[in-house]
Amino acid sequence: MQEAYQEDETRRIVTLEQFIVDTFTRIGEDGIERAVEQPDQIGGGGTYAIIGSRMFVPPSQLGMIIDYTPDTLPQTMRHVLCEYGKEMWSFRKRQDGHPTARAVNRYNGQTRGFEYLTEPILLTPFSLLDTPFGEPLPSTIHLISYPAPRIEGVLDEVKALKQQEGWDPIIIWESEEESLEVIRKVAKGIDIIGPNHHEVLRLFPRTIPSSPTEADLKAVYSQACKNLVILRPKIGVVVRCGHLGCCYSISPRPGLDPEVRWIPAYWNPQRKGWNESRVVDPTGAGNAFMGGLAAALDSGKSLDEGVIWGSVAASFTIEQDGLPTLSKLNGKELWNGEDPWERVRIMKEDLSMI
Hints:
- The radius of gyration is 20 Å and the shape is globular.
- It has 9 helices and 16 strands.
- The protein is of the alpha/beta class.
- α1 crosses α7 and α1 (45-54) packs across α8.
- The strands form 3 sheets. It has a 9-stranded mixed beta sheet with strand order 6-5-1-9-10-11-12-13-14, sandwiched between helices. Strands 2, 3, 4, 7 and 8 form a 5-stranded mixed beta sheet that branches.
- Pfam families: PfkB.
């Protein structure tokens, strides 16, 4: 099932997140942190998001700024990035005395912590103006509120550029670390609010049984989704729930109760071809989900379809350490050797959408 994506020079999806070189450590039972025998990887939530979009969108309609210094961005990493499409990236040499952003992913049992080791550059809409992504400005922007506070400054710049140039992008927001007070304040200016299940529990604390069933968890996440969507973002809310899939809600019309819908993760025990070895590393899967969702919405698709594209993007991301592999066969792009459009077709069939 190869959908024909109509190239449109007026459309582009751009992430405002920073490229990061990831390194890895693990905290042992003795409490001592040790390096993991794993090479440094291409990282950053924005990188995974834009690759999630890339599964469905040509590179000419994507964008990410990469701030780097030549001695701290390995040529091998730059080569890997360019294999996805050179026109996706705007490489800029840092002039602030800091190296390429670097972070440690610190594993403690099943918990993963994250800490910057070098100073990142926090990008904003104004950052795009002196890049290839500033003329025209993108039709969709993706951002993560890390570190918070950040979203209000981004929206102020969107408003300024709207007044100056009529810019009105779709805004895909991973509301990490932002307070509920801030979310309430800005929700109506956002198209999609997309926290994960950990983040909504921080926003809406609930007592969960010590050994919760899937039904217990789904009830909690569904209520959190409702609590967010009544704040009336322009399109809706998506809560990414790991192996449970995602729940989402389209912003209701005034006076109507919101409806929360669920779809499973693509890779689940009921899927033909499933086995536990399919899930190698979930790092970046939630960001890739948001990138797939952004690609669908930027293409004019509904939120019902967008969560399917997002789920497919996440399914390829968990199959290996690092980013999935892009190849071509008879002119068709394959990811990890498979066609993402076929996975979209399978999910639609599962959900009786075709």
